[in-house]
Amino acid sequence: MALICIVLNIINIDWGKTETASGILIVIVLGVLQGSVLEFPVQTIATLLIGGERRDNKRAPCDRLTAILNYNLLATGKDDILECFEMMYKAYVGNLSPNVSAVLLSATNDEKLKEYEIEIRDKYRAILYDDLYREGQAFARGEYQQVDRLHLEHVWAMYADVDRNVFMADYLEEICDRYAREFMVVHRVSRVLRKCGQYQDLMLLSEGECKAYSYCDKSYYGRSAREPGESLFHTSEDVSNIKERKFDYTLVLDADTGVPRGGVFDILSIAAAHPERGIIQPSIKLHCDSGNTMFMHLEAMRQSIYEPMTNAITALFEQSSFFGKALIKNKLYIDYVIGSKDDLIERVPVDVLSHDTFEAALLKPLYAGSTFLLETPSTNYVTWNIRERRWNRGEILLAMYFWKNAFGKPMRWLQKKLQRSKFNKTKVRTETKLDFVTSYIAHSALRQMLMKPALLLYIILQYFVYLRNRYASIIIVMFSVLVFPKFATCNRENYKFVILETMASILQFTPEALVGCVRIWRAFYANISLNVKWVPQRAVEEDFKCSNPFLASFKHLWGYSVFSLVAGVLVVIFLERAILFLAMLITTVVLPMYAGLTSLTKGFKRCEPSSKSDNINAVAVPHIYDSIGNTSEPDIEKNKIEDTSLTPNMYTNYGFDDSTEFPNNKRTQNNVSWSRDVENMIASSERYGQMLSLSPLRNSDSLRVNRPKKYVSVINVKLPKAADKNENNKFKALNLPGSDNPHSHVNMSTRSSSSGSSLSSKIPNTDTAPTENGIIWHVKNVTFIKIFNLKDSNK
């Protein structure tokens, strides 16, 4: 097909009016351009022939397979940490099993942020412990409707034959503590290989390796090499917990990657049926909701429209790309990518960004289109452009290794000239050879990148060349890219979305002839000069949320608009036959308007700034951490919080049990426990406050009970106003850290809570008198508990 296009291009040129050099040059440029886009109609035809539906992957029992959910993070602020932990917690709780663990693998440098990561980990552990304890109580009572279905199958079912009292006394706390401690954070020592090095070291730690042996050879990696024998991770309990566990698989994830409920079990069942595959690559579903921007919806729509082509091509080749988020078989990965101490392989170049290409070439990923991972698309055009530039830089680095003589040597020469003393000569220990299929898949992004300069060159050259059908070539190119693929994906259900996406693509991608070339140049210059100005994506997103989105768009894109406006005026004055110039320039002038408009929500409203902060209550946002046994969707408006100070808080200890903790089942003044009514209230309450761990509790010497470290939940419990207190109804906040209550037995092992402030200043101010219901009542989302005088033995 490419040869046919070249012949037609030659015939289309009026050689009598065109200079030979210009004609030859435009034939070459058109050959590159059309060759880059021809894969779209070829893929479309393949999809029409073999079908673009999702294939059901073969599955097998996976009960004995173990996996660790690996979230990778390099945090620049607390918001990054909160977002990552939220995703990891949901992924872990939604796939809870004795065979599944979760670890945040941090490369964060700032010591305060590293401490914050540990702090947030402990809070989530507390949430998990509390929810599981509540769920375990419901399971013991036979109230299975209150138990999460997946947890009932994968966690609680194995204890179905255990006596209720024995389960409560001997099993429940251990179960809750075990799963809480499988929610982990480890801090990596080195930054070698970036994200790829993070999960490589995690796999080695799982195999029992604590010291570095890979990427230590300075003759290959120069200053990028790490010291032989240095620790892989900073010492911690979580590191010890992972060491020598020999996990079968690692599910590699980014900080914004979501895992659906039960998704891990689906992926593992596919892996069990294909033990020869080193990577199981789920499909990536771009996820957004009604409150997200129109740009996010367009990106999700575009991915959905082109999904049938992905399904068809991966089914045809029985192989796919590795998207950097997938299930990796540890043993195969170590054997084929890293190597052993005695036989090092180290196939991934030490300075490469797109590491997944090398891993895919060796491990031949199996595309598991019947399951998926969730990912949030870029919120606006500007952040999309920043991400594309980063990816372009990665593709240029790849080209240096795959064409080391034709492209790599000139690049190294330029790097040495520009970087001077900073230049670090590196080479790969084991070169990777690509077969045809792997090469085609691996270089698809590079081919699309080359379309941009080829298109710009064509737009410039066509003015100096006389063509018999002037616009035939560019119409064919645009038709092949934007319209023809829709023949394989458009149907009655999605035709409106297809039309909308096509119109948006014209506005977004027509300027790519100019914007894409600038992006490639900046990526190229960053590689040769090491002058990398990285703009955090979150900072740009917050800029759009906190200011007028049209002004924010113009602030980032004004240069393109001004250049295109001036160039457009000059073209109109001095050039004829320049319709393609004008089409490109006009769409580039209005690009900030398009970026600003699509950064609004569907209701044409600006997105609200992020509510996350380092405030301790920001972790427990309403309804995100409701009991995992509650599978119904919460009514957000019905349970909206009016007072977010939530102080003074009340700490409740679920460690006490009616059956075994106290001799002769007696309560003493030094070991106060809630009544059954209070416990039931707590079990169904919303937890809006902070989640903290307790240091080991030691009861009085007469009881001689040493209790292990426990987690407690902070319940939204407050004191009524002073006017409602009288001698007959005494209210006390039990076990408040630092309080004067002589019966308090809670000793906080972490920082003091906000409840250490004066209680009198925190009395809720309400004009509505509480309506008493026994000893518990609620007013304006505030729960009141009446605690009788502890000295009265009759109470």
UniProtKB/TrEMBL annotation:
Segments of this protein annotated with the region Disordered: 734-771
Ranges that cross the membrane: 449-465, 471-488, 557-575, 581-600
Low complexity: bias regions: 749-761
Amino acid composition bias (Polar residues), ranges on this chain: 762-771
UniProt entry keywords in alphabetical sequence: Membrane, Transmembrane, Transmembrane helix
Protein name from the UniProt record: Uncharacterized protein
